[in-house]
Amino acid sequence: MNIHEYQAKAILREYGAPVSRGVPIFSPDEAVAAAQSLGGPLWVVKSQIHAGGRGKGKFKEEAAGEKGGVRLAKSVDEVKTFAAQMLGNTLVTIQTGPAGKQVNRLYIEDGSDIEKEFYLSILVDRATGRVAFVVSTEGGMDIEEVAHNTPEKIVTFSIDPATGAMPHHGRTVAHALGLTGELAKQAGDLVSKLYRAFVEKDMAMLEINPLIVTKDGQLKCLDAKVSFDSNALYRHPDVVSLRDTTEEDAKEIEASKYDLSYIALDGTIGCMVNGAGLAMATMDIIKLYGEEPANFLDVGGGASKEKVTAAFKIITADPNVQGILVNIFGGIMRCDIIAEGVIAAVKEVGLQVPLVVRLEGTNVELGKKILTESGLNVIPADDLDDAAAKIVKAVKEAR
């Protein structure tokens, strides 16, 4: 689960990390009140969307002006003008894709006098099974670009969970960023606080880009991007309350209600599969035959008829779907349950696109019989290769 910058900074503030004062707002009038409460003389007006690259992004609407999604204002009137231009308009960044995201809230923040910019992030390193820090002197830039062009400027280290963050970890960060004296002490203190926040809140990723040194010699988290481990959210009702569903795909929200693993993609062939590995293989073979998957959807090993029906309805709700491939290996999941769920869903929502079903495993013959006797226009497949070939062929013929 992702949250907005201002929410992430509020959490960091709880742990004593240095962040600027700021106020989230939802209207131009609120922006004025926020600017007046902060006092100025400089304010930063920040679009709040779940995507990076906001400063370099562009709004689709001319009324939003030519500046990006992060703007420096030098007066209260300018804050109000920027807020009016940005709210309700669509911001396109390198991470949103061409569709962009509508800006429904802003963060009005104190301006900072920046001396230096750095990059710092914390994430779970799957290779070591530990929490890892990634730091670089190249702050304010896309870390992917830094990794590609100057990988030697990125320093990574992991922390033993038995000890947690230790003084030498802070010294490692300070050395990597070229910080000495008082700034080195601040770096050590910040590493300890950020690590504690990361672990206690079950974060999956914490990115500060940039981490700055102000002209009066203070480290400050100028931006903050946080995502949480969804499997641990039951421990954090306070974090769950921060969820902004307007930033999420409606189909993914619906899928979460049924405990379905669903991710919307840009292709044309909808997939309903049980098991993450089989789902990935299904997506790969669709690409091999020249089409693109419209989604990743794992209904799980013990899905009920209701879950299968919900999954099918979610797939058909995507207007880009031109064909559907159901690929089920019935171990725990029985093939007859899948067949009944598919029939129920088709009867409820209708079937406007080709449907190929490949079943294998427990009660496979009964499942095939149920589909055959349903009277539906279902194309049977013998194996995964056969299924992919048939759905791609059916989709191309239907165009």
From TrEMBL:
Pathway listed: One-carbon metabolism; formaldehyde assimilation via serine pathway; Carbohydrate metabolism; tricarboxylic acid cycle; succinate from succinyl-CoA (ligase route): step 1/1
Residue sites binding substrate per the record: N274, G331, I332, M333
Entries under Pfam families matching the protein: ATP-grasp_2, Ligase_CoA
Cofactor: how bound: Binds 1 Mg(2+) ion per subunit.
Entry's EC annotation: 6.2.1.5
Positions of the ATP-grasp domain: 9-264
Gene Ontology molecular function: any one: malate-CoA ligase activity
Quaternary structure and partners: Heterotetramer of two alpha and two beta subunits.
Entry-linked NCBIfam families: PRK00696.1 (NF001913), sucCoAbeta (TIGR01016)
Protein name, UniProt field: Succinate--CoA ligase [ADP-forming] subunit beta
